[in-house]
Amino acid sequence: MDRPVSTDLLRNPAFWAVVSFLIEAALQVSGWQNSYVAAVLWIIVFVLLLYALARWIQLPASAMFTLRGLGVLSFGRMMLLAEANRVVYDALRGTAIRKFIDRNFDETDQRLRVVANYVAGTSVPLFGREPAGAALVPFDKGLLKTGQFRADGSEFKQYHSEIPNYSDVSLKRGDLRRVVRELRSLSAHMPDQAQ
């Protein structure tokens, strides 16, 4: 379940750097030249671009130069698992895991749920919101065998439960490279023709 693009864009620091630059340029072109305001806007542009660059560097190398990679840049430490699954799926291109997923699952939602299970199987901690909670709490990986991910991996529901045990399942942005590294290592030990 994707959020509207407009809310993703409003969380993107590169977008705000461009907006700040355009405001500063418009003020200069219009003839209203206040050197203090111009200096403050240039500082804002510089800081936002540095922040976006720092987030961009944390992406896996294969996702850095893609529109999806630029789209997941946002403020905050956490990244929804549904977004991370798409980046991880792209980063696994050419590996045995990716070939297994592509060969055995046809629908996008199925593929992303399988990627979510692979991500959950790594040493990277996951977080989610409990049914009545508002805060992100550590995800209990002991529940993985008793349920499944839903909605591209953004929810986890046990088989016997009516409501999801966790919603907004997330991981730390800084852990995304580690996830890809662990899954590539796992894929290197899998037979290429895994069924």
Q: Can you tell me about this structure?
A:
With about 200 residues, this protein is of the alpha+beta class. The chain has two domains: about 55 residues; about 120 residues, no CATH class. The chain contains eight helices and six strands. Strands 1, 2, 3, 4, 5 and 6 form a six-stranded antiparallel sheet that branches. The protein is elongated. The chain starts with a helix and ends in a 7-residue tail after the last helix. The relative contact order is 0.14. The N terminus is likely disordered.
Please write out the topology.
Blueprint: H1 5-10, H2 13-30, H3 35-57, H4 67-71, E1 78-80, H5 81-91, H6 96-104, H7 108-120, E2 127-129, E3 136-138, E4 147-150, E5 155-158, E6 166-172, H8 176-188
Antiparallel strand pairs: 1-6, 2-3, 2-6, 4-5, 5-6
Helix pairs in contact: 2-3, 5-7
The class by helix and strand makeup works out as alpha+beta
**What share of residues is helical?**
40-55%
Count the domains. 2
Question: Averaging pLDDT over every residue, what do you get?
Answer: 75
The end-to-end distance, rounded to whole angstroms, is: 28 Å
SSE string? HHHHEHHHEEEEEH
- Please, what is the oligomeric state? single chain
Number of helices: 8
Report the C-alpha radius of gyration, rounded: 20 Å
Strand composition percent:
5-15%
Shape: elongated
Largest sheet: 6 strands, antiparallel
Strand tally: 6
Point out poorly predicted stretches.
Answer: 1-7
